[in-house]
Write a structure and sequence with these properties.
307 residues, 4 strands, 8% strand
């Protein structure tokens, strides 16, 4: 906003705007609310804006209120013709019109969309960057079958970032993988409902369900040998294949679990209402749909179903 040819009052308004809005918006998302004392709708909307922006402050959201009667020049630069008018500002430029967001839910949804698209540098984003390598380490350790170490890593991350859905869900999955489905379920049940709506918990719930069907860790070796013997004695028994796959997966034998389930699907994909197919999909979800092992097995499944 240039100051050439402006009156002293207008220059003062521009400098104040730069200080309050433009400079903070270089790294933060500034919610700019144009209002007036006489404006009833403005006063009705203001508590909503104040509440939501306070909730999002740790994500780098800052509220600035502009009284159009006291700052008419600034309002004119934004071509404000009616109030309330609410803009989201990033790097000195309007990036969204938030005026029609009249409820906390509507405004929160819009801010979530904006924050996903812009490199806003709030506390939450900084924290997410800090814990990302630790989360990757926890996932790697869990995939390698070191459940106790994975539990330790995810627990440490939670101490740093209690609201991290990935860390909380990772801890639940690690506990389930260790055979302690009860503890995993208790942690999941104790978490806030808003947090557990995150997609990361879909894998966690699948891991708990799978752990409930699998033998305890101390029984795995004997259970796997028993399941293998039952399957060898009756290779056409679909239930034996399903039981073997569940036990093999719990024991870390992913390939053997997938082989048994794919064999069952190949022989009779409709058996028990597609139980083998459903079990295989649940394994995919527990491992993670982006995992290379899952990609390989999905190709095998597709070739079987559509080849």
């Amino acid at each position: 906003m240039a100051t050439l040819g402006l009156t002293p009052d207008e220059q003062k308004a521009v400098e104040q705007f730069r200080k309050d809005v433009v400079e903070p918006s270089m790294t933060n998302l500034v919610v700019l609310d144009f209002w007036a004392e006489w404006c009833g709708p403005c006063k009705a909307l203001m508590p909503v804006i104040e509440k939501v922006t306070a909730d999002y402050a740790h994500k780098g959201v800052k509220l600035v209120k502009i009284n159009v009667d006291e700052n008419g020049f600034i309002a004119s630069q934004f071509q404000v013709r009616s109030i309330p008018t609410v803009y989201a500002i990033f790097k000195g430029q309007p990036v969204a019109d938030l005026t029609n967001a009249r409820t906390e839910s509507q405004l929160s949804q819009l801010l979530d969309q904006i924050l996903r698209q812009l490199p806003v540098e709030g506390e939450a984003q900084t924290q997410a960057a800090d814990i990302a390598p630790l989360l990757a380490m926890g996932e790697e350790v869990l995939a390698a079958g070191d459940h106790e170490r994975a539990i330790s890593i995810f627990s440490q991350i939670i101490e740093m970032a209690p609201d991290s859905a990935d860390a909380q869900a990772g801890l639940v999955r690690a506990l389930a993988a260790s055979g302690d489905a009860e503890a995993a379920g208790q942690i999941l049940a104790a978490l806030p409902g808003d947090l557990t709506k995150d997609a990361a918990f879909d894998r966690a719930r699948s891991a708990i369900a799978l752990a409930k069907d699998a033998p305890k860790n101390e029984e795995l070796s004997g259970a796997l040998a028993e399941a293998e013997a039952k399957l060898a004695a009756n290779p056409d028994d679909h239930q034996a294949k399903l039981d073997y796959a569940t036990t093999a997966f719990a024991a870390g034998e992913r390939d053997k679990a997938a082989d048994a389930l794919l064999a069952s699907i190949a022989a009779d994909r409709e058996w028990n209402e597609g139980a083998a197919h459903a079990k295989l999909l649940s394994l995919f979800e527990v491992v993670g749909l982006e995992d290379p092992w899952v990609a390989t097995q999905r190709r095998r499944l597709s070739a079987l179903l559509f080849g």
